[in-house]
Amino acid sequence: MSPSPIVATGLGKHYAAAGIGSWALREVNFELNHGQALAVVGENGSGKSTLLDLLLGATQPSAGSLQVERPTAALLELGAGFFQELSGRDNAYYLDLLSGASRADARRRASAAVEFAELGEAADRPLRTYSAGMAMRLGFAFAAGREAPVTLVDEVLAVGDGYFQRKCIDRLREMRGSGTTLVIASHDLHALRGLCDHALWLRQGCVEALGPVESVTAAYEEHLRRRATRDEVPRGRHGTGEVVIHEVRLTGADGARKESFAAGETLRVEVLFEAKRALDSPVMGVALFRDDGVYCYGPNTRFDGVLAGTYAGRYRLVAEFPELPLLGGNYEASVAFYDKDHVYAYAWDHRLYPFRVMSDAPEHGVVRLRHRFSVEPAG
Predict the structure, then answer these.
(1) CATH topology of domain 236-358
(2) Where are the domains of the chain?
(3) pTM of the model
(4) How confident is the model over 296-352, as pLDDT tens digits?
(5) What distance in Å separates the CA atoms of residue 197 and residue 352, rounded to the nearest whole number?
(6) Long-range CB contacts (within 8 A, 24+) of 223-226
(7) Residue 135 DSSP class
(8) Is residue 166 over pLDDT 90?
(9) What backbone torsions phi and psi does residue 176 show, to the nearest 5 degrees?
(10) Phi and psi dihedrals of 90, rounded to 5?
(11) 4-28 as b/e, with b when 16 or more CB fall inside 10 Å?
């Protein structure tokens, strides 16, 4: 077994149209070992899909060298190559045969795919009768069932509803655990942090950053904030449903409900929640936003290394912010419960709990930082 199923050295791709040439990808270098996962991030047009096409072998590099262990499985355009008149089961069976599988293996994997996709009786109906979501679920199940040392994933982490998204992410975790090397391009930074150990940030076809997933995605996220082009998650309730948030109370230090707080006062966020099934070390967090969407602070139990364990039933979570340093203005609190790897939300009440901070100090900004001034002769 090769120690490095993917090695890219000085990788580049040049396109020429009407005599005008442009580089879609230039001087990309990275190496991945078995069982590693690389997150590929970047804005639209940054070169992510071009990189995946090169790794897949759909196009050849214009510069540099690329070694990829074959065969390579791809979760790119889910459902591409399906025949509308064949059933979901037959589509999976015949496409597997076309890829070189034996009849027995194709039959086994087709059954596994329709079971994973939870098609039920629809598995034996023509694909033209499927909804778009059903076809995508089958496409993911078929592609994820392929046994390959390298799997490429492009923006398919949002397949189906919240329940099925979680199922897809868990399947990718299993693949990585069995030694599959993953390359995942996505805008879902939460999922990437939970699934990957390394990250590559592409910007206009060039490498902006390459390294540990936490540091690279944090730098990319800060870049998006500065450009103010980040897709805004709408206020509201999100999540897969394993946790139900029954009540959220904002109180002072004495536990009395409040809507206005003096700067420097204690803010307590009390959350009555219910875990509908036993959950292993869910990540519990509270985030504070200014009412114009500025993200002020967002601690959680995973970052703090606390409250690990199994949760099932009803609980009361308290997040306390003593000596609240926010300056005067209107704010909103979010409450979220994630899986232990902080990939998908069981429940997320986003910016639903408003409060006000009162301050008489003539200061500017978001928070009050401890400080002092001094003047000395320059000499």
Answers:
(1) Coagulation Factor XIII; Chain A, domain 1 (2.70.50)
(2) 6-227, 236-358
(3) 0.67
(4) 999 999 989 999 999 999 999 999 999 999 999 999 999 999 998 888 889 999 999
(5) 33
(6) 224/43, 225/295
(7) H
(8) no
(9) -65, -40
(10) -70, -35
(11) ebbbbeebbbeeeeeeeeebbbbeb
